[in-house]
Amino acid sequence: MKFYNTLSRKIEEFVPLNPPNVSFYACGPTVYDFTHIGHMRTYTNNDVLKRALTYLGYKVNQVMNVTDVGHLSGDDDSGEDKMEKGAKKYGKTVWDVAKFYTDFFFKTTDALNIFRPDITCKATDHIEEMIQLINRLIQNGFAYETKEALYFDVIKFKNYGKLSGQKLEEKIQAVRKEVIVDFQKKHPADFALWFKTVGRFVDHTMHWTSPWGEGFPGWHIECSAMSMKYLGETIDIHSGGIDHVPVHHENEIAQSEAATNKQFVKYWFHNNFLTVDGQKMSKSSGNFYTIEDIEKNKIDPISLRLLFLQAHYRQPLNFTWQSARASQEAFNRLKEISLGLKGSSSLTRKPVNFSTKAISFQQQFKTALENDLQTPMAVAVMWDVIKSDIANDEKYYLLSDFDRVFGLNLSNITKEKIDANIIILAERRLEARKKRDFDASDRLRIKIEKAGFKVEDKGDSYTIKKS
Ligand code: AMP
Ligand code: ZN
Asked: Three-state SS for 261?
């Protein structure tokens, strides 16, 4: 398997530390507002990576955090606390806010058939681990204290910026405005490990006792502490959206490696954004849709998986209702096809006399995954299987086999069954229509009707009913 490692800026052969085991840490949600489908693009791609690795024979142990300690808005830690802001907005306590939005997050991931992580860990349950890690940083000379906070001293970490390739001087420009926040801070890019509940944070509701007085952790430290606790000091894969590269993940590397003197992560896997009108879908811009908006528009959440799979994870994907509806239609067709093929075929049993053509399709699918998780190519192989002339039981077996990675839940669909041969005729007819070969399309329609079915055209798709 090869995929793009943000750290080396190259597509690399994936060699885990302890094959076939894979340690995989995914940055989880900040639970102060509704999870939207932009987040879901990242979590679906993480899920697809995990499924692909499993398909290829690895044993993946995935850990995901839930950021239920408020962290400060903006990359420079200068803003209002996000949890407190969420609590005020909805008139609840910060704990209620965290619980409510955590539940909403998992309701959403379940609706998209995203596997739950093997371990889910809340920041508020790991304050002690964070304090211990900060202590290690103090002992190693990488942290210093001011009246307001404890900071990581970026100048002392010689590889600071290695993930994003950003130079410290460029970083200074970006965070200059923070200088006014804490006059005792040595360098504008120094980031907080621990905030004290003094001064501007005196009313902060969430706080814990620490060797530096009452306070609460900075955002970045939680991921380092929990990743190390559950997966060890060096792990195979760490994922997140591309927005995390320049600050959050850069800081995670600095504080982890400064504490352990070991490489923190071997492969950094970053997902590009789901956009709306070319802008990142985000809570702060207010241009987001939740799973409830999706359902209100009669879109099956699982069909979003198909939409996401059709764009490579490193490319931006622009969301439109039109593309969501097209995905829904394609998904409906897939369900029909799968149902039709189901017949007497067995899901797990490879058909006897599995043909060379079927073997070749399976190989093409595997190659697409191994080549930097080329899901659009893998989806195209699936449609090629459907259109091909291999036996129905081979088709059904391959569809189910591919679905272990796609996660469209095709084998769980139950509904009135339409014969596979009819669906194949309808698929051929759709192809003919796309090529504007109307003679062929008419001939196929007559065949379908003679078999007792009615086919109705719907844009670039169709529906079939018993007539
Ligand atoms: P947050 O709760 O904001 O930390 O986001 C959780 C995860 O979703 C992070 O890995 C983000 O990078 C990712 N994310 C946020 N917005 C988007 C988006 N519009 N498209 C893809 N991923 C996103
Ligand atoms: Zn994180």
From this structure: coil
Question: Which is the closest atom of ligand 1 to the Cα of 273?
Answer: 20
Alpha-carbon distance values, 220 to 65, 69, 338, 403 (Å): 11, 11, 45, 35
The DSSP element (H or E) to which 323 belongs, if any, is helix 321-342
* Distance between Cα 197 and ligand 1 center (Å): 28
Ligand number nearest to the C-alpha of 239: 1
Residue with tokens 């995990």: 50
Whether 37 lines ligand 1, by a CB cut-off of 6 Å, is no
| Ligand 1 center to 38 CA (angstroms) | 6
Ligand 2 geometric centre to CA of 28 (Å): 7
3-state secondary structure at position 46: helix
Q: What is the spatial distance between Cα 4 and Cα 270, in angstroms, rounded to a whole number? A: 8
CA distance 282 to 295: 19
Give ion ligand 2 contacts, CB < 5 A. 27, 223
Helical H segments across 371-437, by residue range: 375-387, 392-406, 420-434
Structure tokens at 275: 């956009």
Q: What is the mean pLDDT of residues 47-64?
A: 98
N- to C-terminal Cα separation, the chain: 48
428/388 Cα distance (integer angstroms): 10
Look at residue 220 and give its three-state secondary structure. Answer: helix
Q: Residues 142, 156: contact at Cβ < 8 Å?
A: yes
Give the pair of three-digit tokens for residue 296.
């209100």
Query: For 134-183, what is each residue's pLDDT tens digit?
Result: 999 999 999 999 999 999 999 999 999 999 998 877 765 555 444 457 88
Which one of the ligands is nearest to 68 CA? 1
Of all helices (H) and strands (E), which one includes residue 12? Answer: strand 10-13
Least confident stretch, 17-31, 180-194, 273-287, 307-321: 180-194
pLDDT tens, position by position, 79-121: 566 667 777 777 778 888 899 999 999 999 999 999 999 999 9
pLDDT tens-digit map of 222-236: 999 999 999 999 999
CB distance 237 to ligand 1 below 6 Å:
no
